[in-house]
Specification:
Blueprint (H helix, E strand, L loop, with lengths): L12 H30 L4 H22 L5 H19 L12 E2 L4 E2 L1 H20 L6 H20 L4 H17 L4 H21 L1 H11 L10 H13 L24 H34 L3 H25 L17 H19 L6
Antiparallel strand pairs: 1-2
Helix pairs in contact: 1-2, 1-10, 1-12, 2-12, 3-4, 4-5, 4-6, 4-11, 4-12, 5-6, 6-7, 6-11, 7-8, 9-10, 10-11, 10-12, 11-12
Length: 368
C-alpha cells in the first residue's frame, strides 16, 4: 500500500512576514554598522554586506525547503544530527583561536560555528524523546535527569571554547521545554536554582568573567577599560533619542564600538533609528514569540508542540539576553541578536529552524 501524503495547509503568514522583516532589517543594519570599518580596514565598505546577503539568500532557500518538508522526517535523522554536532564541537576545540576563543571551524570561504547547531540539535533530541516518554516526565530520575545530562554534556563542551552564553542558552531552553511538557514545578525550581548557582560559580572563577560582572555594576568607573564597550553602547542608544540620527549616520560605529555589526548591533539601531526603531525590533520579536506559542498550542501532535516550543525559546532567550546586555541590564556576554547580528552560521540555522516552525504551522489543527 502507498503511504498517504501528509496534508499541509497554508503557512503562518504573520510569522513568515516577521522573519523576513527581521532578516531584511538585519542585512541593512549590518551594512550600515560595518561600512565605515570595512572601508577603513578592508578597503571594501560592502564586505560584510555581501557576506550577510549571501547567507540570507542561502538561508532563505533552506528555510523554504524546510517549509515544504514534513517535520516528522527529522525524527529519523535526530541521532545522526546529534553525533555530527558532537564531532563538530570537538573538532572546533582543535581550531586556532579567534579573539581568545575557539568557536569557529574555518572552511576557507566562511567559518562554521558548531554551537549554533547544538542549540537546535538539543531541541530535536528532546522533541523526539519526550514525545515517546509521555507522563514519565513527571518523574525526576527518569523524566528529568536524562535530559539534564545530555544537554549538560553538550553545554560543557561548549564551555570549553569558552562560550558560557550559548551553554546557558542551551540549559535555559532545556528547562523551558521540560516545564512546558509537564515537569513538576518543584523539580523545575530546583534545577533553575542550581543553574543560577552554577553560572555564578563559573562567573567568579574566571578572571575575565569576574571583571565583566564587576564592571556591570558601574561601567563608567572604568570607561576606558573593562567598561568601554558598554559605555559606548549606552552613548549610542542615548544619542539616538526618539527618532534617531538616520540610517548610516551613527558615530559610534566609527571605530568606537568594537565590531558593531556583531553582538552590539542593537545600539547602532538605537542611534540611527532611535527609540522608535528599537521598539519596532522588540515588537517583531514579540510577534515571533506569540506566533511560535500559537503554533505550539495548535500543533497536531506532541512532537510538533515540543519542536515549536524549543525553536521559539531559542530565539526568544537570545533576543532577551542580547538586548539586556547592550542596554546594561545584565553583564556583557557574547550572544548575537537573532536574524540581525552579522554571522553566517547563526543566520543560516535560525532560518532553517524557522522553516521547521513554519512547517509545523502548515499542519496545525486550526486555521491561521
Amino acid at each position: 500500500m502507498k503511504k498517504s501524503k501528509v496534508k499541509m495547509g497554508q503557512i503562518d503568514f504573520v510569522l513568515f512576514a516577521t522573519i523576513m522583516l527581521l532578516v531584511a532589517i538585519g542585512v541593512v543594519m549590518v551594512y550600515s554598522a560595518s561600512s565605515y570599518s570595512a572601508a577603513f580596514k578592508l578597503n571594501d565598505p560592502e564586505y560584510y554586506l555581501k557576506k550577510q546577503l549571501m547567507w540570507a539568500i542561502i538561508g532563505f532557500v533552506f528555510m523554504v525547503t524546510a517549509v515544504k518538508t514534513d517535520y516528522h522526517i527529522i525524527k529519523k535523522y535526530t541521532g545522526i544530527i546529534m553525533i555530527i554536532t558532537l564531532v563538530l564541537l570537538i573538532v572546533v576545540l582543535a581550531c586556532p583561536p579567534v579573539n581568545g576563543a575557539r568557536r569557529w571551524i574555518p572552511l576557507g570561504f566562511a567559518g562554521l560555528q558548531p554551537s549554533e547547531i547544538a542549540k537546535y540539535a538539543i531541541v530535536l533530541y528532546m522533541a523526539k524523546s519526550l514525545d515517546m516518554k509521555g507522563e514519565k516526565v513527571k518523574e525526576f530520575t527518569k523524566g528529568i535527569v536524562p535530559y539534564l545530562l545530555v544537554s549538560g554534556f553538550y553545554a560543557a563542551i561548549i564551555l570549553l571554547e569558552p562560550n558560557l552564553s550559548i551553554a546557558s542558552v542551551i540549559m535555559i531552553v532545556t528547562v523551558i521545554i521540560l516545564f512546558a511538557v509537564g515537569a513538576r514545578f518543584v523539580h523545575i525550581f530546583a534545577i533553575g536554582s542550581s543553574l543560577v548557582a552554577a553560572v555564578g560559580v563559573l562567573a567568579i572563577t574566571a578572571d575575565y568573567r569576574l571583571k565583566r560582572l564587576m564592571n556591570f555594576r558601574d561601567p563608567f568607573a572604568d570607561s576606558q577599560g573593562e567598561g568601554y564597550q558598554l559605555v559606548q553602547s549606552l552613548l549610542a542608544l542615548g544619542s539616538g533619542g526618539v527618532t534617531g540620527a538616520g540610517i548610516g549616520q551613527s558615530r559610534q560605529k566609527c571605530l568606537y564600538i568594537p565590531e558593531p555589526w556583531t553582538d552590539f548591533i542593537f545600539p547602532i539601531i538605537g542611534e540611527e533609528l532611535g527609540l522608535i526603531g528599537c521598539a519596532f525590533i522588540i515588537l517583531l520579536f514579540v510577534i515571533l514569540v506569540w506566533r511560535g506559542i500559537k503554533i505550539a498550542v495548535t500543533a497536531k501532535d506532541m512532537y510538533g508542540t515540543i519542536l515549536a516550543i524549543g525553536i521559539t525559546s531559542v530565539i526568544a532567550i537570545q533576543a532577551i539576553i542580547n538586548i539586556a546586555v547592550v542596554t546594561g541590564s545584565m553583564p556583557v556576554t557574547g550572544v548575537p541578536l537573532p536574524f540581525i547580528s552579522y554571522g553566517g552560521s547563526s543566520l543560516l540555522f535560525n532560518m532553517i529552524a524557522m522553516g521547521i516552525l513554519l512547517n509545523v504551522s502548515r499542519q496545525s489543527t486550526s486555521k491561521n
